[in-house]
Amino acid sequence: MSCGEHHHEDSCEDVLAEVWLFLDNECDPERRAAVQQHLDGCGSCLEHFGIEEQIKALLHRKCTEHAPQELKERLRASIRDAVLRKADVTVERGPDGTSVEVRTKQPPWE
């Protein structure tokens, strides 16, 4: 991507390749200033940066929400079923707590 304008040091491609580092504050201060300077003078990169910023904010919102309880229960049941199909599980409850032993089932040909 190129906006068609001449920029001093950084091409649009260089800046856009670093947008996520810039958004995550993972650039060193000198590089951050150079990217910011480019964004301030390049409308097309600034527009692309705005879209990336919105995507990052959306991901942050959606990835921090808690899964519904029903989904958690279905996942637990599915994992439990998969483990039980592939292993012998023994659970013993004694005065010192709970003990769980898991042994892989032997294939029938062994």
Provide an overview of this structure.
There is one protein chain. The chain is of the alpha+beta class and 110 residues long. It has two domains: 12-63, no CATH class; 69-104, no CATH class. Helix content is 57%, strand content 15%. It contains five helices and two strands; from the N terminus they run αααααββ. It has a two-stranded antiparallel sheet with strand order 1-2. A hairpin with a 2-residue loop joins strand 1 (87-94) and strand 2 (97-104). Helix 3 (29-41) crosses helix 4 (43-63). The longest helix has 21 residues, at 43-63. The N and C termini lie far apart (60 Å). The mean pLDDT is 78.
What layout of secondary structure does this protein have?
Layout: H1 12-17, H2 19-23, H3 29-41, H4 43-63, H5 69-86, E1 87-94, E2 97-104
Antiparallel strand pairs: 1-2
Helix pairs in contact: 3-4
Domain Putative zinc-finger: 12-45
Pfam family, one: zf-HC2
Protein name: Mycothiol system anti-sigma-R factor
What's the pLDDT, averaged over the residues?
A: 78
Which structural class do you get from the secondary structure elements?
alpha+beta
Number of strands: 2
The helical percent reads 55-70%
Work out the helix count: 5
Strand line-up of the largest beta sheet: 1-2
SSE ordering: HHHHHEE
| Main sheet makeup | 2 strands, antiparallel
Q: Kindly report how far apart the N and C termini lie.
A: 60 Å
Spans where pLDDT lies below 50 across 5 or more residues: none
C-alpha Rg (nearest Å) = 26 Å
Instruction: Determine the strand fraction and express it as a percent band.
Output: 5-15%
- Total domains: 2
* Backbone shape: elongated
